[in-house]
Amino acid sequence: MDCIFCKITDGSIPSRKAYEDDKILAFYDINPQTPVHILVIPKAHIPSVDFITEENSDTVSYIFEKIPKIAKESGITNGYRVISNCGEDAAQSVEHLHFHILGGAKMLEKMA
Questions:
Q1: What element of type H or E holds 67?
Q2: Could you tell me the strand order of the sheet in which 99-103 lies?
Protein backbone atom coordinates (compact mmCIF):
# COMPACT_ATOMS: atom_id res chain seq x y z
CA MET A 1 0.00 0.00 0.00
CA ASP A 2 1.25 3.46 -0.85
CA CYS A 3 -0.31 5.30 2.11
CA ILE A 4 1.95 7.84 3.81
CA PHE A 5 0.20 7.35 7.17
CA CYS A 6 0.63 3.57 6.96
CA LYS A 7 4.34 4.22 6.34
CA ILE A 8 4.47 6.51 9.37
CA THR A 9 2.72 3.83 11.42
CA ASP A 10 5.17 1.11 10.37
CA GLY A 11 8.15 3.41 11.02
CA SER A 12 9.42 3.62 7.44
CA ILE A 13 8.71 7.38 7.54
CA PRO A 14 9.77 9.10 10.77
CA SER A 15 7.41 11.24 12.83
CA ARG A 16 7.46 13.22 16.05
CA LYS A 17 5.18 11.08 18.18
CA ALA A 18 2.80 12.50 20.76
CA TYR A 19 1.29 9.12 21.71
CA GLU A 20 1.38 5.53 20.54
CA ASP A 21 -0.08 2.20 21.57
CA ASP A 22 -1.03 -1.00 19.76
CA LYS A 23 -4.17 0.54 18.15
CA ILE A 24 -3.37 4.18 17.38
CA LEU A 25 -0.61 6.68 16.69
CA ALA A 26 -0.66 10.41 17.40
CA PHE A 27 2.03 12.60 15.89
CA TYR A 28 2.74 16.28 15.35
CA ASP A 29 1.71 17.68 11.96
CA ILE A 30 4.69 18.80 9.86
CA ASN A 31 2.66 21.82 8.67
CA PRO A 32 0.92 22.97 11.87
CA GLN A 33 -2.11 25.23 11.59
CA THR A 34 -2.10 26.10 15.30
CA PRO A 35 0.66 26.15 17.95
CA VAL A 36 -0.24 22.53 18.79
CA HIS A 37 -1.40 20.44 15.83
CA ILE A 38 -1.48 16.68 16.30
CA LEU A 39 -2.83 14.02 13.96
CA VAL A 40 -4.38 10.92 15.50
CA ILE A 41 -4.68 7.87 13.25
CA PRO A 42 -5.71 4.25 13.63
CA LYS A 43 -2.90 1.82 12.88
CA ALA A 44 -5.35 -0.19 10.79
CA HIS A 45 -5.96 1.43 7.41
CA ILE A 46 -9.41 3.01 7.21
CA PRO A 47 -9.66 5.41 4.23
CA SER A 48 -11.98 8.02 5.79
CA VAL A 49 -15.06 8.63 7.94
CA ASP A 50 -17.08 7.15 5.05
CA PHE A 51 -15.50 3.78 5.80
CA ILE A 52 -16.32 3.56 9.50
CA THR A 53 -18.36 0.41 10.01
CA GLU A 54 -19.79 -1.64 12.83
CA GLU A 55 -16.66 -3.80 12.59
CA ASN A 56 -14.14 -0.94 13.02
CA SER A 57 -16.11 1.69 14.97
CA ASP A 58 -14.55 0.50 18.23
CA THR A 59 -11.23 1.90 16.98
CA VAL A 60 -12.82 5.30 16.39
CA SER A 61 -14.40 5.23 19.83
CA TYR A 62 -11.00 4.32 21.28
CA ILE A 63 -9.40 7.30 19.50
CA PHE A 64 -11.95 9.64 21.07
CA GLU A 65 -11.29 8.14 24.49
CA LYS A 66 -7.57 8.95 24.05
CA ILE A 67 -7.86 12.44 22.51
CA PRO A 68 -8.34 14.28 25.86
CA LYS A 69 -5.26 12.57 27.30
CA ILE A 70 -3.18 13.34 24.20
CA ALA A 71 -4.31 16.98 24.24
CA LYS A 72 -3.53 17.42 27.95
CA GLU A 73 -0.13 15.72 27.70
CA SER A 74 0.68 18.00 24.75
CA GLY A 75 0.03 21.11 26.81
CA ILE A 76 -3.45 21.95 25.58
CA THR A 77 -5.31 22.87 28.74
CA ASN A 78 -7.78 25.58 27.70
CA GLY A 79 -9.69 23.92 24.88
CA TYR A 80 -9.07 22.42 21.44
CA ARG A 81 -10.75 21.41 18.21
CA VAL A 82 -11.00 17.94 16.72
CA ILE A 83 -11.48 17.87 12.96
CA SER A 84 -11.65 15.12 10.36
CA ASN A 85 -11.80 16.02 6.69
CA CYS A 86 -13.76 13.56 4.57
CA GLY A 87 -13.39 13.56 0.80
CA GLU A 88 -12.01 15.84 -1.86
CA ASP A 89 -14.38 18.78 -1.28
CA ALA A 90 -13.43 18.80 2.40
CA ALA A 91 -9.70 18.87 1.50
CA GLN A 92 -8.88 15.39 2.77
CA SER A 93 -5.26 15.15 1.61
CA VAL A 94 -4.42 11.63 2.86
CA GLU A 95 -6.83 8.75 2.38
CA HIS A 96 -6.29 7.31 5.84
CA LEU A 97 -8.73 8.22 8.61
CA HIS A 98 -7.20 10.89 10.81
CA PHE A 99 -8.31 13.42 13.35
CA HIS A 100 -6.62 16.78 13.80
CA ILE A 101 -6.25 18.03 17.37
CA LEU A 102 -5.82 21.79 17.09
CA GLY A 103 -5.03 23.97 20.09
CA GLY A 104 -2.63 26.14 21.96
CA ALA A 105 -4.29 29.41 20.89
CA LYS A 106 -7.67 31.12 20.97
CA MET A 107 -9.56 30.26 17.79
CA LEU A 108 -12.25 32.05 15.85
CA GLU A 109 -15.80 31.19 16.82
CA LYS A 110 -16.91 30.60 13.24
CA MET A 111 -15.21 28.39 10.72
CA ALA A 112 -15.15 29.24 7.02
A1: helix 57-73
A2: 17-20, 24-28, 36-42, 99-103, 80-83
Determine contact, residues 11/27, Cβ cutoff 8 Å: no
Q: State pLDDT tens for residues 35-88.
A: 999 999 999 999 999 999 999 999 999 999 999 999 999 999 899 999 999 988
First to last CA, the chain: 34
| Cα dihedral: 98, 77, 34, 52 (round 10) | 10
User: Which residues are part of the catalytic machinery?
Assistant: 98
What are residue 80's DSSP bridge partners? 103
Core vs surface per residue 15-48: b (16+ CB within 10 A) or e: beebbeeeebbbbebeeeebebbbbbbbbeebeb
* pTM: predicted TM-score of the whole model, two decimal places: 0.92
